[in-house]
Design goal:
The complex is a heterodimer of chains A (364) and B (254). Chain A is mainly alpha-helical and 364 residues long. In chain A, 71% of the residues lie in helices and 7% in strands. Chain A contains twelve helices and three strands, in the order E-H-E-H-E-H-H-H-H-H-H-H-H-H-H. In chain A, helix 1 links the parallel strand 1 and strand 2. In chain A, helix 4 crosses helix 9 and helix 7 runs antiparallel to helix 12. The radius of gyration of chain A is 35 Å and the shape is elongated. Chain B has a domain of 69 residues. Chain B is built from ten helices and ten strands. In chain B, strand 7, helix 6 and strand 8 form a beta-alpha-beta unit. Chain B is globular. Classes of the chains: A mainly alpha (364), B alpha/beta (254). Chains A and B meet through helix 1, helix 2, helix 3 and helix 12 of A and helix 4 and helix 6 of B.
C-alpha cells in the first residue's frame, strides 16, 4: 500500500501569484500511474487563499474520476478555516442545447413580430394621447415642446445650413460644367432649385436629424430605461408616451419640415453664388428661373416627404430606445439600430415617393 | 502588529464644498470597521475617497502605508488592486455573464489558469448562496442576488482590504445574516480586513469590531457598538435607539 502514496511537500504562501505553478505541480504529481493517493503536506505552508483551495478542489475532482484521492496532512487551524469554506459540489446547470438554424430563424421572426407589435402599440398610444392633448383633455409636460424644438432644431441650424450651402454649390459646379458645353448654363438655376426642393433638401436634413436627434432620442430613452426612470413614470400613473414620446415626436414634426425649408433656400443660395462666379449669371436671372421652374406640386412633394422622414426618425428613436434592455451595451445597440433603420427607411420611402410622383405626373 | 492598512490624516472630503472635515481614521489588519451615520452625512463620499475615486480636498489617505493620491497613477492602481470594492449599486457588467463578471479581476490581473478560475468562481458563488448561476446574465437576477454577485466579484482575489457600501441593504433578513456570516468566514480564512458603510444596526452588531459614526460634517464618535449604544452624546444615543428627529428635544430631557 505504501508505494501507492506520494507526498508533495508544499511550502511558502499558497496565493494567487503562485496558483498557476501549484496547479501544474499537482497535476504533474497526480499523473504518475502508480500513485493512488496524493498526500499534500502543509507543514511549511504560510498563507492559503481561495486560489489554492480551488486548485486543490479541482485536482481532487480530476483525480476522483480515476479512482484516486487527495489527503491533506499537517493542516494548521487557519488552513482548516480556508478549506472549510469549500462548498458541496454544486450541480452544474445543464446549458440548453445550442439552437439550430431553423430555431434561430424562428427566433428572429418572432423577435421581429414582437418589435412590430410594440411599434403598433406605441403608435396607438401616441395617437390616443396625442388626441387627448389636442382636444385639451391632457397636457404635455410644461415647456417640454419648446425645449425639444430648441435642442433638435435651433441647435442644428448651423450644421444643416452649412451642409445645404455646400451641397447647392457642388450641384451648381457639376451642372455648370456639363450644361455650359451645350450653351445651357442658365439652366443651372432650374437644376439646383428642382433638386434641392424635391430631393436633396429633405434628404440632407433627414440624415443630419437622424445622426443628431434620432440617436439622441434612442440613447436618452434607453438610459432612462436602465435607470428605471421609465418604470418610475409608469408606476406613478404618468404615461411615458405622453411624458417622453409625444413631446419628442411633436418637436421633430415641427423641426423636420422647418429645417428642410431652410436647407432648400440656403442650398439655392449656394447655387446662386457659384452661378454668378462661374457662369456670370445675374442673381435676378437665377431667381426668376428658379421661381418659374418650381410648381406648387414640387414644394408639396419635398415638404410632404420631410414630414414622413421626421416621423421615421422620431418613431425609430422612441421605439428602439424604449425597447432597449437594462444594460449599457443594449443602449448602444439601440442607438446604432436607430441610425441604420432610420436611414434605411428614409431611402426606401424616398424611392417610393419618387416612383409614385413620376408615374402620377406622367413624366415617365 | 503590522502597519495599519488604511490611514486617514486630517482628511476633508467633498465635491466642491467640504462634506466631512478633519477625518482621522486608522484601520488595522483583520479589523472590521463600520462607518455609520444618517443619510447624506458623507459616508459614501468618504468611501469614494478611500477607494481612489475622489481626491480629498485636504489631508492625506494612506493605503498599505503609501499615500494614495500622491503616488503616480500606475502605483495607485497597484495599491487599489490589493483592495476589493462592492458598490452600493451592484455595478455588474450587464453584457457579461455572472461567471465572467466575477472572474473579471482574476482574468485581468492574474495568470491563474482558466480551469482554476472557473473553480474559484463556482466556489465563491456557492459561498454567497448562488451556486450554479454562472451562465445567467445580471439582468435576470433579483436585486439581492446581484448584490451577492457584486460581493463575490469584490472578494474573488481575497483582497487584504474590502470596502463594502451597504452590503446587506435591501436583502431579506436571512440573506443579510448570511452575508454577514460570509464576511466573518472570509476574514477567518483569509485574514481580510473590512470597511463597511451601512445603516443596518443588526449587521453592525454582528460583525463590526469598531464603529465610526459621522454627523455634522465630521466624526462624531468612535468605539465598539456597545460603547456607542450607551453614549452620553444625545445625537449618538438617538441614532442607535432610533429616536426620530422630532422627538430629539424630548429625548434630551428624559
Amino acid at each position: 500500500m505504501q508505494s501507492h502514496e506520494r507526498t508533495v511537500q508544499l511550502s511558502g504562501d499558497l496565493v494567487v501569484p503562485g496558483a498557476r505553478a501549484l496547479y501544474g505541480e499537482l497535476r504533474h504529481a497526480a499523473r504518475r500511474r502508480d500513485v493512488k493517493t496524493l498526500v499534500l503536506d502543509f507543514a511549511e505552508v504560510g498563507r492559503v487563499d481561495s486560489s489554492a483551495v480551488a486548485v486543490i478542489a479541482l485536482v481532487e475532482r480530476q483525480l476522483a474520476r480515476h479512482g484516486k484521492r487527495i489527503e491533506l496532512a499537517n493542516l494548521a487551524d487557519r488552513h482548516r478555516a480556508a478549506f472549510s469554506l469549500v462548498p458541496a459540489p454544486a450541480e452544474p446547470d445543464t446549458p440548453p442545447p445550442e439552437p439550430g438554424v431553423l430555431e434561430r430563424l424562428g427566433d428572429r421572426v418572432i423577435a421581429l413580430g414582437t418589435s412590430a407589435r410594440g411599434l403598433g402599440r406605441l403608435l396607438a398610444e401616441t395617437g390616443r394621447v396625442g388626441f387627448a392633448v389636442a382636444t385639451g383633455r391632457r397636457r404635455m409636460p410644461a415647456g417640454s415642446l419648446a425645449s425639444h424644438v430648441v435642442i433638435m432644431g435651433v441647435d442644428a441650424i448651423f450644421v444643416v445650413g452649412l451642409l445645404a450651402f455646400l451641397l447647392g454649390m457642388t450641384l451648381a459646379f457639376q451642372g455648370a460644367v456639363q450644361l455650359r458645353r451645350f450653351g445651357a448654363g442658365v439652366f443651372v438655376a432650374d437644376m439646383v432649385g428642382f433638386s434641392m426642393v424635391r430631393e436633396l433638401g429633405p434628404l440632407v436634413t433627414a440624415v443630419i436629424l437622424t445622426g443628431r436627434t434620432g440617436a439622441a432620442i434612442a440613447s436618452e430613452l434607453g438610459t432612462m430605461k436602465v435607470g428605471s426612470e421609465i418604470d418610475a413614470l409608469a408606476a406613478s400613473g404618468i404615461s411615458p408616451v405622453r411624458f417622453l414620446v409625444l413631446p419628442r415626436l411633436a418637436a421633430i414634426t415641427l423641426v423636420g419640415p422647418a429645417l428642410t425649408l431652410m436647407a432648400i433656400f440656403i442650398g439655392m443660395l449656394g447655387g446662386m453664388l457659384v452661378s454668378s462666379l462661374v457662369l456670370q449669371l445675374p442673381a435676378v436671372t437665377y431667381w426668376s428661373h428658379v421661381v418659374e421652374r418650381l410648381e406648387l406640386s414640387d414644394w408639396m412633394h419635398g415638404i410632404g416627404k420631410s414630414f414622413v422622414f421626421a416621423w421615421i426618425i422620431g418613431l425609430s428613436g422612441c421605439h428602439l430606445g424604449l425597447r432597449a434592455n437594462r444594460d449599457a451595451s443594449s443602449v448602444g445597440a439601440a442607438t446604432t439600430r436607430t441610425v441604420v433603420v432610420s436611414i434605411f427607411f428614409i431611402i426606401v420611402v424616398d424611392a417610393i415617393f419618387a416612383t409614385i410622383a413620376t408615374f402620377s405626373a406622367g413624366r415617365a | 502588529m503590522t502597519a495599519p492598512l488604511l490611514e486617514c490624516h486630517d482628511v476633508t472630503v467633498g465635491y466642491d464644498t467640504p462634506i466631512l472635515e478633519h477625518v482621522d481614521l486608522v484601520v488595522e489588519p483583520g479589523e472590521i470597521v463600520a462607518l455609520l451615520g444618517g443619510s447624506g452625512c458623507g459616508k459614501s463620499t468618504l468611501l469614494r475617497t478611500l477607494t481612489g475615486l475622489l481626491p480629498p480636498l485636504a489631508g492625506e489617505v494612506l493605503l498599505f502605508g503609501e499615500s494614495l493620491y500622491a503616488v503616480p497613477p500606475d502605483a495607485r492602481d497597484r495599491l487599489l488592486r490589493r483592495t476589493g470594492c462592492a458598490f452600493q449599486q451592484d455595478a455588474l457588467f450587464g453584457s457579461l455573464t455572472v461567471c465572467d463578471n466575477v472572474a473579471l479581476p482574476l482574468r485581468e490581473l492574474t495568470d491563474v489558469p482558466g480551469a482554476v478560475v472557473r473553480e474559484m468562481v463556482a466556489m465563491r458563488l456557492a459561498q454567497v448562496g448562488l451556486p450554479g448561476t454562472e451562465k445567467r446574465m445580471p439582468a435576470n437576477l433579483s436585486g439581492g442576488q446581484r448584490k451577492r454577485v457584486a460581493l463575490a466579484r469584490a472578494t474573488i482575489l481575497d483582497p487584504l482590504l474590502v470596502f463594502c457600501d451597504e452590503p446587506s441593504a435591501g436583502l431579506d433578513p436571512i440573506v443579510a445574516a448570511g452575508i454577514d456570516e460570509l464576511l466573518l468566514q472570509l476574514r477567518a480564512a483569509f485574514g481580510g480586513t473590512l470597511v463597511i458603510v451601512t445603516h443596518e444596526l443588526a449587521s453592525v452588531r454582528t460583525i463590526a469590531d469598531r464603529v465610526v459614526m459621522f454627523a455634522n460634517g465630521g466624526i462624531r464618535a468612535t468605539g465598539t457598538i456597545d460603547e456607542l449604544m450607551h453614549s452620553d452624546d444625545s445625537e449618538v444615543f438617538n441614532f442607535f435607539h432610533r429616536v426620530p428627529e422630532s422627538e430629539h428635544a424630548i429625548a434630551r430631557h428624559t
